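Job type: complex structure
Entries:
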Amino acid sequence: MGASGEAMIDSMALSVKALSFSYGPQAALSGVGFDVKRGQCCILLGPNGAGKSTLFALITGLYHAREGRIALGGNEIKKASYQALSQLGVVFQQSTLDLDLTIKQNLHYHAALHGMSRKQAKNIIQQELERFEMFDRLNEKIRHLNGGHRRRVEIARALLHKPSVLLLDEPTVGLDVPSRQAIVSYIHGLTKEQGLAVLWATHLIDEVYPTDQLVVLHQGKIQITGSVREVIEKVHAENLQDAFAHLTQKEGS
Amino acid sequence: MLLRHYFRAMKGIVGRELWRFVQQRERFFSALVRPMIWLFVFAAGFKSALGIAIAPPYETYILYEVYITPGLLGMIQLFNGMQSSLSMVYDREMGSMRILLVSPLPRSFLLISKLLAGTAVSIVQCYVFLAIAWCYGIEPPVMGYLWVFPALVVSGLMLGSLGMLLSSFIKQLENFAGVMNFVIFPMFFMSSALYPLWKLQESNEWLARLAEYNPFTKTVELIRFALYGQLNIEALYYTVASLLLFLFIAIQGYNPSRGMMNKKKGR
């Protein structure tokens, strides 16, 4: 903290400033701004309809906002989209794998989109799948995998091109408890080992680690940002559960 | 380095589409059955009803089957173009279009690669159909098989970009039935695919006029002439112009700041 504004943006893995977006007359996001540093896991907490998915659509460049700016590793998405998007790995809420293709085919497709050679891709695919102990299933079709394994493939895919920022949009929805826990702890591990910056959207409090940063979004506005402890202290709550309830119930919808 | 990235990405996109096509056997099968029914059943029924006069590119009297073969090649590509646009609407709802769109290359390049991929699939279908037609006795000159290739590339891209244009405006999958009624059928029947334009002119002047300006008519004529080793330059210009127009609008439709997607409520 304390550094001047511009330098600050550059040192951040992900920087969102004064972002507003609306679908027609209906405002989906207004004045949203926060930063995620390298090695940090930032949890974007918000009830359904808070604007989380819209924010993700903007960060991934699916839409462009007229107001505000988004930078990935100092590259603004509207001006330097190639550099910005090269640094970004995404796991969307809905599965985006080709069911009729094998794990291998799905991953090579993604690698090609990111300009990797066949050989490069082969090595990295092996590395990433081995972390999940899934390398021996390389030639299985996605259709034959269960939900937890599909998610793992998607996470491996999002990491293939060695991004510096990983976005996860409610990645554990619909999974059983062991799969959920495995994914939560895996992602937290990545931030420590590889210095990856993670932005994780969820409405499930139990996915938050005490060391995480929080951004609480409600009705398109940021209610609070800070570490877990700061947030609890600021709203004078007993625990995070209470704090979240308090923050997302005011001016109820 | 960047150039290599473009090349690899395009290879990946086309490869994926071909793999998907090969692995979805029902799709491959149904894509072939449709023109075969037209050829074996419809054409057989109409053979005696319709006399075809000698008109370029044909040099002798021809059978009705021979006449409609280029039209059926056009139909394969028309359906394929619409089907890949259907899959784009579906992909967008399901999200796999997003994987394409969040990759770093410019969106227009990604969309054009996707078009090329769809066109490649349609050309495979066309050649398999031509092989079946050959067994049935429809034997255009050998060089025709070579010349028809560039014609199929241009027409596949044109019909694919029309599909892409539609996919950027269609909000939901359910609206796709409308595309069948308002795009595929009128385009196909109001064209020279099944009957020469002068036949249409005999029965209805303004229908013939509409058919004449139908881009599908031009693309079928382009294919027809190419299949007999000739270049219909007017048809080529018209098809390329339609291609550029459709492509331009489609890319606008997928533009992140101006596109129609902006106006839709995303989830």
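Summary: The first helix of chain B runs from residue 2 to 23. Chain B has one domain: 2-255.
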